[in-house]
Amino acid sequence: MSEVEAKPRPAEGRGARRRRETRAKLVRAAHSVMARKGIDAATVQEIAEAADVAFGSFYNHFESKEAITEAIIAESIESFGDVLDRIAESVKDPAEVLSASVRYTVGRAAEDETWGWFLVRSGMSMAVFRVGLVKRMARDIRIAIDAGRFSVIDRDATVFAAGGAVLAIVTARLRGEIEEDAPERVAAIVLRMLGLSPEEAREIANRPLPALALIEPGEVSG
Amino acid sequence: MSEVEAKPRPAEGRGARRRRETRAKLVRAAHSVMARKGIDAATVQEIAEAADVAFGSFYNHFESKEAITEAIIAESIESFGDVLDRIAESVKDPAEVLSASVRYTVGRAAEDETWGWFLVRSGMSMAVFRVGLVKRMARDIRIAIDAGRFSVIDRDATVFAAGGAVLAIVTARLRGEIEEDAPERVAAIVLRMLGLSPEEAREIANRPLPALALIEPGEVSG
User: Taking CB atoms and an 8 Å limit, are A168 and B166 in contact across chains?
Assistant: First the structure.
């Protein structure tokens, strides 16, 4: 299932289906325009044009640019976040949970650059630390700190610092400012920053990844 | 001396002086508009209006919004960067150099929020890692790593990660999302992320700061 389209509802009429399709077109177009130009610089006009939807129709679906931005986060970033939640549930070592989240996030940003740019730009211009991936990463880091797995000086500030570190590496990779860095290397760097020794950081970052195919939604119990 | 105004030149005529003053007004206005709205979202129109300068006159001074952005970085961020250069020259321990830079940067961003927002926004939407403060921080981290002072897994990626960590903490403070964090605490967190023990990180972050009054430009030899 694509992340920006809802499932067809059984009893849906023609009008409702068209409405849903237009909304999905707007979300896809906004995602792409914002990834390219930045969330701040994107205008409703451009989003409507890119979606091939009349300017006025935009407002039948979203109250404002902020509203469609929230929708993108909800539908694109949050749905990936659900993947991270399943990792958090299926992996025991809190350090390995964070490592797997970082690896999946960095890998996804490399595979799908639009998604990567949107992640970076939303991380930078919005309170993304309270939603989406970074919220989950923050949760995972807090759990690991509270379990004594990471030794840090200041929990809350370190959570922001680690989130900023991951976003900065993803940005540098998207811009081609650093050589291709395998997701495992990025995870090891982050674990090192959270107080693990280089050896332990590398070991954890290279453990076999939990196979997401095995923990798709609906496939996992609980 | 204000950071956005050049020194008066001795033989300057009236036209030249007015031209210089208009340019300085545009730079100040752009700095303030971009800090508020973001570099991407600020328009030449708004900058000219905020400076009380005719729209067309903007282009007598700057070719584009990108050109004035470069000028702000050159004049505001780079001039602060000169301060960091003097720290780098006057402090021996490379870990302490980085710590002092972080403390001055975090302190300045808290004292002057416009400057702080501009730092954050420029760090996020431009290749600021190649200019300005983060370029210097990158240099200082590389020197410390090469001197064996920091133990990290990947030098280049860690430089980006540490820069992102500092920017994320500055952003969180500007947004009021974390409690007031003394510059010393932020410096200690960054040193910890670069491989120092919590004890050593705290000790270095709390050493007396080199007094900048004593190393103002022109006051220092060499």
Answer: no
